[in-house]
Amino acid sequence: MILAEAYPTYTDGEIEGVQIRNLKSHHDNRGWLIEIFRHDELDQDLWPVMTYVSSTLPGVARGPHEHVDQTDGFAFIGPSDFRLYLWDTREGSPTKGNRKVVTLGVSRPAAVWIPPGVVHAYRNVGTEPGLVFNAPNRLYAGWGKKEKVDEIRHEEADPRMFPMD
């Protein structure tokens, strides 16, 4: 008899430590501006040490992955929408086993801070390439890019481990 492989099950719900802040767009006759980060609105241990922007094509997903020590500070502002997936697999977390799925971007501009150990991924669910800004609180590959990258990648894992519906 072959036993079915056990896959984790998740309950939809909040995840401790994840912060989602809706962003306000300020428009005038020149265009618009959105504040993504302010020191007075975020705990100091989450302050960014670098920033980068990525473009993701429609239908394409990035992740799932997680970090051991790094907090990601994403901003989804458009010109497309993204479905963000979060899974709490952290031992000792009061929300372990929860999954949160939220759509952010042009329809709901938001900044999201994802703490270490929370598995995360996003998919462009819009019809055009979309931009995602990231302002992590750790340098990629450390100072001078000479350290091990703080990333545990799950992209090659069985999709039933981290379902993205």
TrEMBL record:
GO terms for molecular function: dTDP-4-dehydrorhamnose 3,5-epimerase activity. Catalyzes the epimerization of the C3' and C5'positions of dTDP-6-deoxy-D-xylo-4-hexulose, forming dTDP-6-deoxy-L-lyxo-4-hexulose. Its EC number is 5.1.3.13. The record marks Y140 as: Participates in a stacking interaction with the thymidine ring of dTDP-4-oxo-6-deoxyglucose. It catalyses: dTDP-4-dehydro-6-deoxy-alpha-D-glucose = dTDP-4-dehydro-beta-L-rhamnose. GO terms for cellular component: cytosol. It comes from Aquisphaera giovannonii. It comes from the Bacteria. This is dTDP-4-dehydrorhamnose 3,5-epimerase. GO terms for biological process: dTDP-rhamnose biosynthetic process; polysaccharide biosynthetic process.
